[in-house]
Amino acid sequence: MLRNIAVAALLAAVAPVASASDAEHSSATDTTIPGGVIGAEPSNWSIGIALGYGVRSNPLIQSEDIPILVDLDIAWFGERFFFDNGDVGLTFSDNDWFTLNFIARFNSDRVFFGKTNTRIVQVDFGAGNIVDIEVRVPDRDYAIEAGAELLTGGDWGRLQLTAFRDISATHGGYELGADYSYGIRQQRWYIEPSVGISMKSRKLNDYYWGIRADEMSLALAGYHADSGINVSLRVLGSYQLTTKWAVAIVAEYEQLNNEAAESPIVRDDHVVGFFAGFGYRF
After folding, report:
1. Is pLDDT above 70 for 225?
2. Any residues with CB less than 8 A from the CB of 127 and at least 6 apart, and which?
3. CATH of the domain spanning 5-281
4. Which terminus of the chain has a smaller tally of CB atoms within 10 A, N or C?
């Protein structure tokens, strides 16, 4: 899934006017101060907060949507090592053409499984034989994934290519991704549409969306998911009030791959989200 949309809005909302074509974290040695003024003292830290209202839908059955009210953006960039909102990375190469990073992260598919409920449903087998059955969405664990990230950009936009594999023996699969965005800045206004695709392997898909034998019931059939491709779209816009404050709005849509969408525990074949509020960069 895409990174939290409130953080995405915050990053663009209080970015300096001169950095519209910079990658999201285009370099571990980048000394630009997001939200600062040109010529200010460089800092390795990037800290901000987004305040507003937003929500991300939950595609699982018996689930609650995920609210977004307050979100933090915390990043640190050293000469080679960096930390960026939960991602830990090492820069292998950083030049005028591209940046190549090694990154360790948590898989984001797990977030939906923390907002589900157990319910009792009645199944009528006829002849007055009605049985109460407990329907529980199976729990899933976070996976630690490691891989490579290639970032490049210019007047034509920004491109991010990623390849991650599970190193925690949780799902044993991998994910390949590509994301393209194009930023348009007019004085204090900034608009950025983006499109992304992610190919999820059979093992990854089956772990999160499959139903194993010990999880089956009369109301939940067994299911095995194969590999599939998710497609996502996002548009964000912001207006910079000061060098540190901005107002921003962002909306995103992600189409789940068919293998995930056909799972018995999936209600919707897509995920939508939005956020509107204020961003402040320290």
Report:
1. yes
2. none
3. 2.40.160.40
4. C
Backbone phi, psi, residue 152, to 5° = -150, 155
38 — phi, psi (to 5°)?
A: -65, 130
pLDDT 10s digits, 174-213: 999 999 999 999 988 999 999 999 999 999 999 999 999 9
170 falls in which pLDDT band (50, 70, 90)? very high
Q: Going by C-beta distance under 8 Å and a sequence separation of 6 or more, which residues neighbour residue 220?
A: 135, 211, 264, 265
Residue found under tokens 């960096």: 82
Report the alpha-carbon distance of residue 148 to residue 100 in Å, rounded. Answer: 7
pTM (2 decimals)? 0.83
Q: What does the H/E/C string look like for the chain?
A: CCCCHHHHHHHHHCCCHHHCCCCCCCCCCCCCCCCCCCCCCCCCEEEEEEEEEEEECCCECCECCEEEEEEEEEEEECCCEEEECCEEEEEEEECCCCEEEEEEEECCHHHHHHCECCEEEEEECCCCCEEEEEECCCCCCCCEEEEEEEEEEECCEEEEEEEEEECCCCCCCEEEEEEEECCEEECCEEEEEEEEEEEECHHHHHHHHCECHHHCECCECCECCCCEEEEEEEEEEEEECCCCEEEEEEEEEEECCHHHHCCCCECCCEEEEEEEEEEEEC
Distance in angstroms (rounded) separating the CA atoms of residues 13 and 30: 18
